[in-house]
Amino acid sequence: MVLVALVLVLEGEGPPEPLGLRGFFYTLLKEAFPELHDQGENPFALGFGLRGGEPWARVSLLREDLYGRLSPALFGLEGREVRLGRPFRVRAVLQEGHPWAGLTTYARLFQGPHSPNLPLRFYSPTFFRRKGVQYPLPEPRLVLESLLRRLEAFGPLKAPQQVREALLERTTVRFLEGRTQMARTEVDTVGFVGKVVYHLPKATEEEALWLSAPGRYAFFSGVGAKTSLGYGLARAFTQVGPQDA
């Protein structure tokens, strides 16, 4: 089961606008996959930014059938003009060779090193829907609930109940460095950007594995609310020490 992040390298002024990017993608989705209906969790996440002054937009697909349907249309955008709130020309569509492009499988999320520490960096404002309002603090339970919910919705495995309870009840924050930043959604809100190291004390091997796998998944799925607008863009980072976290 493949999951993919494709990056559109753009020519134009400034980064794409969140609502414009979502509107463009929904039009593309309706044409390529009209039978896809809202099932609670979005099987995709969007992103945008600047790299060396060059704007880019990102489409991350969490289901293999979605990739099969949408990839021809997405790769076919190369050289075309698109409107993502403002007009851009798509210079390239990348599956690799860009920091926010990549391809993996759900099985690979559970391979590689695992640890009782999960260092995550939040690159775009990240917030959560809580009691009817947007909440901007990256509390362990909120972050892990978001990641586990999406991982289990589209992946083949579900966390054992004891492991899930351990992650949600015992995980704490070992290090935090960041700030709030405005997010442009349908209403004014703020989200968190910065670095957090989450820690699960006395983690078993299985618990550490289930802490690390959602951390790898964050690169594709995003975290929290409004990932369809490019918010919650996050990825694990290499933790050298508390001063480098």
Outline:
This protein has about 240 residues and is an alpha+beta fold. The protein has helices spanning about 20-30, 65-75, 105-110, 140-155, 160-170, 205-220; strands at about 1-10, 45-50, 55-60, 80-85, 85-95, 100-105, 115-125, 130, 135, 170-185, 190-200, 235.
What does this structure look like?
The protein is α+β, with helices and mostly antiparallel strands and 245 residues long. It folds into 2 domains: 2-103, Alpha-Beta Plaits; 112-236, Alpha-Beta Plaits (2-Layer Sandwich), CATH 3.30.70.1900. It is 30% helix and 35% strand. The protein is built from 6 helices and 12 strands. The chain has helices spanning 18-32, 64-75, 106-109, 140-154, 161-170, 205-221; strands at residues 2-11, 44-51, 54-61, 81-83, 87-94, 102-105, 117-126, 128-130, 133-135, 172-184, 188-199, 234-236. Strand 2 and strand 3 (54-61) form a beta hairpin. It is globular.
Q: What portion of the residues fall into strands of 2 or more residues? A: 25-35%
CATH architecture of the largest domain: 2-Layer Sandwich
Q: What is the count of helical runs?
A: 6
Mean pLDDT level: 93
Number of E-state strands: 12
Distance between the termini: 32 Å
Helix content: 25-40%
CATH topology of the largest domain: Alpha-Beta Plaits
Shape: globular
Q: Characterize the largest beta sheet: strand count, sense, and whether it forms a barrel.
A: 6 strands, antiparallel
What is the H/E order? EHEEHEEEHEEEHHEEHE
What is the total domain count?
2
Radius of gyration: 18 Å
Unreliable sequence segments? none
Given helix and strand content, the structural type is alpha+beta
Organism: Thermus aquaticus
Domain CRISPR-associated protein Cas6 C-terminal: 120-232
Protein name: CRISPR-associated protein Cas6 C-terminal domain-containing protein
